[in-house]
Write a structure and sequence with these properties.
By secondary structure, the chain is of the alpha/beta class. The protein has helices at about 15-30, 50-60, 85-90, 105-115, 130-140, 160-170, 205-210, 230-235, 240-245, 270, 280-295; strands at about 40-45, 65-70, 95-100, 120, 150-155, 175, 195-200, 215, 255. It contains eleven helices and nine strands. It is globular.
């Protein structure tokens, strides 16, 4: 049976730590692995993408493989072909399939019928590949992850949820601050074996107390345009700026999964200044995903 990566909870704590260490090795030695030599990985994009597409395409190439990019409007799915049929056909040509979708159910159904690993490249509820890159960035900055406190400030969305699931699995204390109506679910199911803790707050300053990193995401994500005005009004007090970083632990830096809207969820001074590791996060997507592909695609 193939191993899928849909929420991040599929990994054990030990597997996650090994994956993060492997990602740092691959960052130092980007062409040292030929794990995908002669193989092809499919990448289905039902949503626009910059970092996900580039990091996966380049990463597959560096592993010796070929990335087959499949836009939704180019597939027979757009004409009503069943997801099950699509999964069965693609498995005959590929060793793994990444999916960036408007619906979690799409990725789940593809995985249910797939004979190859399916990777969630982004869905409305989860963004686990981003969380892997986040943890690589924190590991790179601080060494051990155990006991670190990371604050997430803003909408309790897929990025916050995946940070909570994989962060706590790695031993991180994740504190999420959101306004009423935008909070993560109080009974969020964490991964089995989680070594860290999750706390939910309404006050950004309360969440960032003792935090070594302060994370945020856009206030209006793809698909949220209809409620843009209400979202901006609700999230207006949840901006990452120098004043909020000053309330965190000494030396704390900002994180963001991008794209960013400077002046909204993050100030331009922080986004482009010295108190952030945002561009490291963007690069680390590639290294983390290469380590993930090595883990999932076990080839003789």
């Amino acid at each position: 049976m193939p191993r899928h990566f849909l929420t991040g909870a599929e990994l054990s704590a030990d597997e996650l730590h090994a994956l993060l260490e492997r990602a740092l090795v691959l960052k130092r030695e980007p062409l040292s692995s030929r794990a995908l030599q002669g193989a092809s990985v499919g990448l289905i994009f039902q949503k626009p993408s910059t970092r996900t597409r580039v990091s996966f395409e380049v990463g597959v190439d560096e592993l010796g493989g070929h990335a087959v990019v499949l836009r939704a409007d180019e597939l027979q799915l757009s004409r009503g072909e069943a997801l099950r049929d699509t999964a069965l056909v693609l498995a005959r040509h590929l060793v793994a399939l990444g999916v960036r979708s408007d619906a979690d159910e799409t990725v789940q159904e593809l995985a249910e019928h797939s004979e190859i690993p399916v990777i969630n490249m982004l869905t409305p509820a989860h963004h686990p590949c981003q969380a892997l890159a986040d943890l690589v960035t924190l590991r790179e900055a601080y060494g051990s992850l155990t006991g670190l406190r990371v604050a997430y400030v803003g909408d309790g969305n897929n990025v916050a949820r995946s940070l909570a699931v994989l962060g706590t699995l790695a031993g991180v204390e994740v504190a999420v601050a959101s306004p009423q109506g935008y909070a993560l679910e109080a009974q969020l199911q964490l991964a089995p074996g989680a070594r860290g803790a999750l706390s939910l707050h309404s006050s950004p300053r309360e969440a960032v107390q003792g935090a070594c990193a302060v994370y945020t995401d856009v206030w209006v994500s793809m698909g949220d345009e209809a409620s843009a005005s209400a979202r901006r009004a609700a999230l207006d007090g949840y901006r990452v700026d120098d004043a909020l970083l000053d309330a965190a632990a000494a030396g704390a830096f900002a994180m963001h999964d991008l794209p960013a809207h400077p002046g909204e969820e993050i100030s331009a001074e922080v986004l482009y200044g010295p108190r952030q590791r945002i561009w490291d996060q963007a690069e680390n997507r590639r290294h983390a995903q290469k380590a993930l592909l090595e883990l999932l695609v076990a080839r003789p």
